[in-house]
Amino acid sequence: MDPQAHDVRAYAEFASSKGMEIKYVVDTHLQADHLSGGRKLSEVTGVQYCLHASADVSFPFTPLSDDQELDLGNVTLKVLHTPGHTPESICLLIADKTRGPEPWFLLTGDTLFVGAVGRPDLPSNARESAAQLYDSLKGKILVLPETLEIYPAHFSGSVCGAGMSGKPTSTLAFEKRWNTTLNLDRSDFVEKMTSAIPPKPAAMESTLRANQGRG
Known about the structure:
The chain is α/β, with parallel strands linked by helices.
């Protein structure tokens, strides 16, 4: 998920060293802060490159839809469309059939971080996107089991959100208790998310164009 261009070889080599087979390459959204290695990794491994169906790109890809499941044998990945950070943002809900039917963990991309949430201004209208992000968090993520483990795409140091913890993983229960942004009502959430936006990533426009296939 969300491979960077300079890590393509590392992904392929790691999978090979563990006797694993890469079945899908997924970007949770169109990246604005780094060059995606998704299409290249897809070419190297010969598997499908996946984005949400709404992704605005100029190349072919395998479209994913809300509530769609990807089968990996004992493991299933359920797609949750969570617009807000970007219009096409998704999270992936992971279940292991050998453990039971309940979901095990959630790959949250740039939608939910430890101690923070994704910024709403890349690249859409910030207030509209903040409202979408609020709905995605409240309607798609916070309704999931509190025991769910959370694995975001970034932690402290990234410009994709403000106030991120240096802790790379969390649980939904921990975030409900300590991530104060999640406890705001809709209007306060939108105001907070649009009043203190960090500087945009360097070379954001050219990076985004490249990841759209237009660079």
